[in-house]
Write a structure and sequence with these properties.
The protein is mostly helical. The protein contains 9 helices and 2 strands. Helix 4 packs antiparallel against helix 5.
Amino acid sequence: MHIMEGFLPFQHALAWTVASAPFLAWGLASVNRTLRAHPEQRMLLGVSAAFAFLLSALKLPSVTGSCSHPTGVGLGALLFGPAAMVPVGFVVLLFQALLLAHGGLTTLGANVFSMAIVGPFVAYGVFRLGCALGLSRSVAVFFAACLGDLATYVTTSVQLALAFPDPVGGVLLSFEKFAGIFAVTQLPLAVTEGLLTVLVVNAMAQFNATELRLMPVLTYARRPTP
């Protein structure tokens, strides 16, 4: 998913950076409010960042100019809400670009938009929908993390298709090609990320229930985990 340094045309890289900026400002305000009200949650926010950093650093070769890997952003979105994961994802992607040559600075805005904005918001929305439908916490968390991961790659496919439309079929055919290649590696990775996120959330709920009691993952999960 990390689009490599210099791969996007300048206009596209700039446009995605501009599109991501308001979400980043919103996310910073959200994190500040949360930590002022609950300073004890700093550790859990750090755990969420570390989870995203480690999973998204496990890259596999995929589309030229990009790669395939878990994203890890679903966990933080379910704990703190999707807005909080925008600055967390920004820091994760920045460190990976600088320290691991994974992604890039010119493509940082595009990568933030797909992994730190679309992924967390889809994960959170799916989780809320699952809870509203009466699904157990484990099932809702699984689908949230899994579909949030896949939404990131759908977004990256759109970004690449817009930048490099097919000479014959245009943007749509280009999107189909990019998404089809991503799907080979990303579908099993998304399922794996969903299962891993369930394990982490259930462990947190068992051993840190007091700290989690006001967080979305427990506030909206009305039914007990089977």
